[in-house]
Design a protein that fits this description.
By secondary structure, the chain is an alpha/beta fold. It has a single domain, classed as Maf protein. Helices cover 32% and strands 22% of the residues. The chain has a six-stranded mixed β-sheet with strand order 2-1-3-4-5-6. Strand 1, helix 1 and strand 2 form a beta-alpha-beta unit. Helix 5 packs across helix 6. The chain is globular and about 50 Å long.
Length: 199
């Protein structure tokens, strides 16, 4: 049986990514949980050396829970492109380099695809909730769509401007944040965690 987080509980968000923090805080706001970021607590970022999203999410959540002695929620997510064999995948942030230049990362995706007509792409989010005693629970969400070029919109972050979800006309970068939060890979993983772990 899943452990529950009750209203008023303190929860560490084990991320230093401002875009992810904004999205996760917005998703948590209605549930009465007191959120503090790993950055605000001065927690270091652990090495993310697992081969998949769920492994990296678990590394981050356990590191934050152990260091803070509080429950911690982490997100490991990425952009996957069919024509690139699923890349950049778990290396999505690294493709943007140390300066987090996602404009350059999107150009790299487009250049590597070249003339390939397969435009299928998807985002995956793995959320891990960890407790200081080492207990973890992980939930995965995915949304499929296609790549566009040139990118459109400035409302999202990361690869959002070059991704249009299936059956939608707008890119994630063009969508109102509330509209994106309702359908995103992170929202789909979050729906599972809310159903299992929140009162």
């Amino acid at each position: 049986m899943a452990r529950k987080l009750h209203r008023g509980a303190r929860l560490v968000l084990a991320s230093h990514n401002p875009g992810k923090l904004r999205e996760i805080e917005a998703l948590l706001r209605p549930h009465g949980v007191v959120v503090v970021s790993a950055g605000a607590l001065g927690l270091p970022e652990p090495p993310e050396d697992a081969p998949d999203f769920t492994g990296n999410a678990k590394i981050k959540a356990l590191a934050a829970a152990t260091a803070s002695n509080l429950p911690a929620l982490s997100d490991d997510s990425g952009f996957c492109v069919a024509a690139l064999g699923g890349d950049p995948g778990v290396l999505s942030a690294r493709w943007a380099g140390p300066s987090k230049d996602f404009g350059a990362a999107m150009r790299q995706v487009n250049e590597r695809i070249g003339a390939n007509r397969d435009r299928r792409a998807w985002f995956i989010a793995a959320l891990c909730l960890a407790w200081p005693d080492g207990h973890t629970e992980t939930f995965v969400g995915r949304i499929d769509g296609e790549i566009i070029w040139p990118p459109r919109g400035d409302k999202g972050f990361g690869y959002d401007p070059m991704f249009v979800p299936a059956h939608m006309g707008e890119s994630f970068g063009e969508m109102d944040p509330d509209a994106k939060h309702a359908i995103s890979h992170r929202a789909r993983a979050f729906a599972q965690i809310l159903a299992s772990c929140f009162d």
